[in-house]
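User: Second chain of the day. Same drill as before.
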Amino acid sequence: MFIGGNDLCDFCNDLAQYSPQNFTDNIRRALDILHAEVPRAFVNLVKVLEITNLRELYQSSMRELVESGRYDTREDFSVVLQPFFHSIRLPLLEDGRPDMSLFAPDCIHPSQKFHSQLARALWVNMLEPLGRKTDTLDLTADVALSCPTQNEPFLRTVRNSNYTYPTQPAIENWGSDFLCMGWSPSSSVPTSVHELRPADIRVVAALGDSLTTAVGARPSNSSDLLVSWRGLSWSVGGDGALETHTTLPNILKKFNPRIFGFSTGTQEETAGLNVAVEGARARDMPAQARDLVERMKNSPEVSLEEDWKLITLFIGGNDLCHYCENPEAHSAGEYVRHIQQALDILYELPRAFVNVVQVMELAGLHQGQGGKCDTPLAAQSNCTCFRRSQENMLEMQELKQVNWNFQSGISRFSYWHQYLQREDFTVVVQPFFQNTLIPLDERGGADLTFFSEDCFHFSERGHAEMAIALWNNMLEPVGGKTTSNNFTYSRTKLKCPSAERPYLHTLRNSQLLQDPVEAEAGPTVLSWAAPVAAGGSLVVGIGSVMAWRAVRRRQRGNLSTSF
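Assistant: Same format as last time:
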């Protein structure tokens, strides 16, 4: 198998479709088909030819795929990476120009002469043991054809090469590197939320459930899995620094070390302005909002009138878990109504930027993950709706529809007329969870490193991914925000404000609303927001069905089910 040239050529036209990750995923699917359906097969996977730095990403992704051991599970099948194309030496003429006799008339495809050299290099690679394969193609050399020997008569595989794939060094932490430049605050404290820079934020706070208190973010030393690692919470945790713990406050500390309100440790006494409560539902959001407002009013660290406040609200998991017990009380309409009540209370606060994060698509988490979660856990009894509906397709489809309705219902808050009336207050819906699928490991199963010991709450790695996704959403314009999350490890995924767009994005500075009072006599939601929300709901539906299909065939197992 030899592929990649056209992907590299089209990369600049569509960075997402032709990304190294998608490149590897497509190869994996092809190899999976061969692995599943073709007995007695020896598969050559030839490295993509060298084209600048992007080529290195493609090559390393191919190497990692083969070295994962995914295709070393049978005696009659093997995938061997043949690296002769890792680097290439083109012959030059006396005047310094490339020898074009190696290419077809289109100057891109190889000529017969080039094909001859490729065939020789591939044959030699096939007879070379792993760990000692030639990784350079010298087109000026006379490549001698090797022969099998009496002692080494076989095509070389990882097994008969007595080769052990190198192990990747363990990741010591889930921190991120800060690469942003020119991140100073505004020359004077801004009066408009539409001109708010990250360095202008002084106070952070959060509302929600156990996904915001960070239950299970680290392994527990006792039988009690419900330790709340608040200092590691994606939206409001402040343990350590960004280099070791990726959280929204730790990102903001790079812009303003004096921020206040973040949580530390595991105790309620150090929760700061994290008012989230384990097991909370949307109906609890007004009370949490009132609690938060009172804490801010009573805190000597908060200047209510002067300090800019960043508040993140994330709720809905428990509403979905308990939907079947009382569909009316947990309907999408009630869900939206309770959140609106909380936002109305937060509207009392001056100088506030409120993130409302869309609830994730939960059905996939309840399709069974196997592995360490096969043993029933006590907490699993708390989410009976998804557990029960696994055996009833109609019930599961109804829950998925309610899930989608939750997402589309709150997607309108960014356009809600009553929250557009003040210069110092905004609500922005952050949709990165809208189409997020369960991350998979290299063998195609659910990657449980993103989950806690109960396989339902997020681990510290999962919290880091959520923090990155939230931060990046905040720097993206309304109407152009990423609606999925790329669960791939990198310390450099954080976006940076730019000179052209230095502000946290709101509806107004996203240039979707020119005049703050133009809709003053209009409906509660801007007239064009309804079709936008409807379109988003369709995308949610498609993404959720894909998630369901991706996990439906996995081994069924019990899950932790309480937020």
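Residues 529-551 form the longest helix (23 residues).

User: Great, on to the next one.
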